[in-house]
């Protein structure tokens, strides 16, 4: 997740420029430890599989009623589901997992395991909440206010709708960022197989 701090109003929409969203997610998460576990850096044609992963997951969230907050240039994006989103059936979820596994080639099995673990560890006893799936800022836009703008949009929606925010930090660095934004650790860490890295679930009450 280099210049003077300049904040502009973000756009919050259910119909973003999906290609622009995916481009920022792929660029920002390329060296994230969780994504490196799921789609290793040595994978041939890796960028294509990264694009497919982020496109399919983001599109599914949007199709169910989720939202994206973006800076004007799409250099900062936050993708989340809302408490009123359509809940997929078990069959629909299997279709999504099958699609992801197929679209991510030789890394498909790892991608499937990652998504299954996220589902299994999502707390069932939380009050209504938004689930932030992805939050990313391109490196050259860090410090420009873009991140503050899009995370601020999420905070304002949370306060207006009276719901909480749940997220999984994918690194120690992002964990510290979420904690600065007011989220606290909840539940147990999600440890990926084969000596993989950990995700840190967090939650902020409304």
Main sheet properties: 8 strands, mixed
Look at the structure and name the CATH superfamily.
Gcn5-related N-acetyltransferase (GNAT)
Question: What is the share of helical residues?
Answer: 40-55%
Pick out the low-confidence regions. 1-7
Provide the β-strand percentage band. 15-25%
Please give a structural write-up.
- The chain has one domain: 3-Layer(aba) Sandwich (Aminopeptidase).
- A hairpin with a 5-residue loop joins β2 and β3.
- Strands 1, 2, 3, 4, 5, 6, 7 and 8 form an eight-stranded mixed beta sheet that branches.
- The protein is globular.
- The protein is 43% helix and 19% strand.
- By secondary structure, the chain is an alpha+beta fold.
- α3 packs antiparallel against α4 and α4 packs antiparallel against α5.
- The relative contact order is 0.18.
- This is Acetyltransferase (GNAT) family protein.
């Amino acid at each position: 997740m280099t210049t003077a701090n300049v904040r502009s109003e973000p756009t919050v929409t259910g119909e973003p420029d999906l290609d622009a969203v995916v481009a920022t997610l792929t660029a920002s998460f390329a060296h994230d430890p969780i994504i490196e576990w799921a789609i290793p850096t040595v994978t041939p044609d890796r960028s294509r599989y990264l694009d497919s992963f982020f496109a399919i997951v983001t599109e599914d969230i949007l199709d169910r009623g989720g939202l994206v907050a973006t800076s004007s240039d799409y250099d900062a994006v936050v993708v989340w589901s809302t408490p009123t989103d359509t809940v997929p059936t078990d069959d629909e979820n299997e279709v999504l997992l099958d699609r992801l596994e197929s679209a991510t080639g030789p890394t498909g099995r790892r991608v499937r395991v990652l998504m299954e673990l996220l589902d299994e560890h999502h707390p069932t006893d939380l009050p209504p909440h938004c689930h932030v799936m992805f939050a990313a800022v391109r490196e050259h836009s860090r410090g420009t206010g873009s991140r503050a703008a899009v995370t601020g949009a999420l905070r304002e929606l949370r306060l207006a709708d009276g719901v909480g925010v749940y997220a999984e930090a994918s690194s120690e660095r992002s964990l510290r960022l979420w904690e600065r934004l007011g989220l606290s650790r909840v539940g147990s860490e999600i440890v990926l197989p084969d000596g993989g890295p950990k995700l840190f679930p967090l939650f902020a009450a409304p």
